[in-house]
């Protein structure tokens, strides 16, 4: 195991950030190369917990000679966001200087342009330096897993539709409860990696996606950080790498996948029609029918005439739910994976995982 740090110059004199990197070189040059990172949104820690338990497993595998393909891990991928506190609360989703989501606005380059990502990188602002370093490492891999979490949610993943149903091995290894399929048309980290592969040299591949996968894992909700889940998720990641030939041996975990699968255009965004206190009637993971009562928004406490009922826009499965209980008009309350086209407009950047 090799440990190193990437030093990122801050935007003011005397300030710098350090990005820890862990590498396992691997013994077979023909085996897939893997890149994993967690906490790109700095306060999202379930993926960090998974990597905390995975790294010792990989150390043991390395001693046995079982690591075939090289593995690069960035266990906390956003020291810039981790340093941002406003009124005592961490603000790790958006860069305070530009207000840009740390998971948006990545350079969309071809694979041939990958090495140019680090040209003059020290002249960029800290958040942009970070993005260039992360994308440089990830786009050189064959398997890329960006580990996030939602507010409250099922265990699910976002990935390009070209990798389904091949990625059933991912669902079975990790015990996924839902899969959301994208068209790759965003500036999110996952899609920037996909773009580099799609527009790069094929090498020995017949198609740009052959033997590859780039995805965003949503390890449930913000509060789902504990040793039981961390170990279970680490085992799932390990099993997936075994199934992809990165680690030798029979997969240590496999579960049947019977969850919802939906393209992003079929994800119903249930938004708050008014501002008030939300009282949820249904839990994430539940199957609902069109018209079912999902929540009530209380606008005038003690006066039921001000209550606003929120109903399901289509049949489907509730994948996510917001943690806040005081919501503004237009705040997203839930995401429902359905078989009916959604009328929701994509957010800036093209994705839903904001």
Walk across the major sheet and give the strand order. 1-2-4-3-7-11-9-10-12
Which percent range fits the helix content?
10-25%
Name the shape in a single word.
globular
- Give the number of helices: 6
Give average pLDDT, whole number. Answer: 96
SSE order and pairing:
Elements: E1 2-9, E2 16-24, E3 34-38, H1 46-64, E4 71-74, H2 79-82, E5 85-86, E6 89-90, H3 126-139, E7 143-150, E8 152-153, E9 155-160, H4 168-174, E10 178-182, H5 189-198, E11 213-221, H6 227-243, E12 260-263, E13 267-271, E14 276-280, E15 287-288, E16 293-298, E17 307-311, E18 316-321, E19 326-327, E20 332-337
Parallel strand pairs: 3-4, 3-7, 7-11, 9-10, 10-12
Antiparallel strand pairs: 1-2, 2-4, 5-6, 8-18, 9-11, 13-20, 14-16, 14-19, 15-18, 16-17, 18-20
Helix pairs in contact: 1-6, 3-5, 4-6
Write up what this structure looks like:
It is a single chain. By secondary structure, the chain is an alpha+beta fold. It contains six helices and 20 strands. The chain has helices at about 45-65, 80, 125-140, 170-175, 190-200, 225-245; strands at about 1-10, 15-25, 35-40, 70-75, 85, 90, 145-150, 150-155, 155-160, 180, 215-220, 260-265, 265-270, 275-280, 285-290, 295-300, 305-310, 315-320, 325, 330-335. A nine-stranded mixed sheet has the order 1-2-4-3-7-11-9-10-12, sandwiched between helices. Strands 8, 13, 15, 18 and 20 form a five-stranded antiparallel sheet that branches. It has a four-stranded antiparallel sheet with strand order 17-16-14-19, with no helix packed on it. The model has no long low-confidence stretch (mean pLDDT about 95).
């Amino acid at each position: 195991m090799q440990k190193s740090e990437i030093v990122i110059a801050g935007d003011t004199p005397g300030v710098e950030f350090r990005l820890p990197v862990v590498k396992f070189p691997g013994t077979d040059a023909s085996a897939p190369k893997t890149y994993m990172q967690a906490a790109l949104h700095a306060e999202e820690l379930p993926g960090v917990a998974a990597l905390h338990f995975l790294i010792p497993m990989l150390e043991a595998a390395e001693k046995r000679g079982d690591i075939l393909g090289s593995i690069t891990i960035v266990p906390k991928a956003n020291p810039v966001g981790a340093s941002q506190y406003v009124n005592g609360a961490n603000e790790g989703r958006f860069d305070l200087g530009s207000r840009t989501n740390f998971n948006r606005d990545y350079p969309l380059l071809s694979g041939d342009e990958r090495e140019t990502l680090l040209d003059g990188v020290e002249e960029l602002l800290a958040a942009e330096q970070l993005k260039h370093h992360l994308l440089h490492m990830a786009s050189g891999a064959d398997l890329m897993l960006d580990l996030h979490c939602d507010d409250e949610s099922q265990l699910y993943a976002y990935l390009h539709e070209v990798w389904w149903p091949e990625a059933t091995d991912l669902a079975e290894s990790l015990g996924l409860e839902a899969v959301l399929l994208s068209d790759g048309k965003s500036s999110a980290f996952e899609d920037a990696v996909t773009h580099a592969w799609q527009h790069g040299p094929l090498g020995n591949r017949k198609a740009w996606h052959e033997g590859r996968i780039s995805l965003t894992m949503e390890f449930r909700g913000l509060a789902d950080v504990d040793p039981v889940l961390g170990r279970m998720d680490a085992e799932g990641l390990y099993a997936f790498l075994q199934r992809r030939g990165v680690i030798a041996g029979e997969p240590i975990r496999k579960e049947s996948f019977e969850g919802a699968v939906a393209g992003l255009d079929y994800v119903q965004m249930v938004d708050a029609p008014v501002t008030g206190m939300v009282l949820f009637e249904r839990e994430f993971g539940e199957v609902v029918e069109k018209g079912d009562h999902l929540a009530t928004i209380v606008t005038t406490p003690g006066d039921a005439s001000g209550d606003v009922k929120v109903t399901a826009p289509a049949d489907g499965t509730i994948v996510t739910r917001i943690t806040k209980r005081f919501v503004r008009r237009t705040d997203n309350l839930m995401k429902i994976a359905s078989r009916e086209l959604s009328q929701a407009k994509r957010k800036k950047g093209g994705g839903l995982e904001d």
